[in-house]
TrEMBL record:
Keyword Isomerase: no
Claim: Transport is one of the keywords in the record: no
Regions crossing the membrane: 75-94, 101-119
Potassium channel domain boundaries: 71-123
Protein name: Potassium channel domain-containing protein
Protein species of origin: Octactis speculum
Keywords: Membrane, Transmembrane, Transmembrane helix
InterPro entries for this protein: cNMP-bd_dom_sf (IPR018490), K_chnl_dom (IPR013099)
Amino acid sequence: LRFLKFLRISMPEQFQDMNANVKKGVTMSMILLFLAHLIGCFWNSIRLGNAKINWATPMTSSHELGGTSIDHYVAGIYWAFTTMTTVGYGDIYPQNDQERVYAIFIMLIGATVFGYIVGSVSSLTKDPFNLVALNKKRITAVTAYLKKMHIPKDTRANVRKTVEFSLTHASQYPEGAILKMLPIQVRRAVLVESRRFMLTNINFLRELNEQVVALVLE
């Protein structure tokens, strides 16, 4: 019964942000694929405008590339990714000035966009719950509230430090819901152990009995 109640508890804000991050990562990946599609299509359109000698000529002559539209499309996508990622295997390369100019443009623009997308996706994997942005939002809200209430500057600084410390050590899990599932003695033991770092840094708490501390933490 307690487990079913736990399942009905609303998802914490950071888990909602994680879902948003997953969507953002998928969106960026789709943008990258679409960008490669566009680059590959333009690469093929340049080929069609230079039917005599173009990037496909050496590969077609050596039978490394088929003559169908699908073959050329796949080769164009392949060239787009190898160029954007700066891998450049060299098996597909420009054969005329138009292709060279286009290749230079893609090296500059495509590689920049690719780097931005990969960097953004990497940042999402490092902070899947988006805790950094979420904590900044909370601190900004607290600061704005204190200013509006005309709280003295020194007090605002102390409150900000306290909030930052609390958010830094806050659990990313629905702690309140988990603790409610536990028997009272186990719950108090978990509270004391999970706040051990705080108990060792605050003098008056360090001098209290652990049972009293557990009551305070509850």
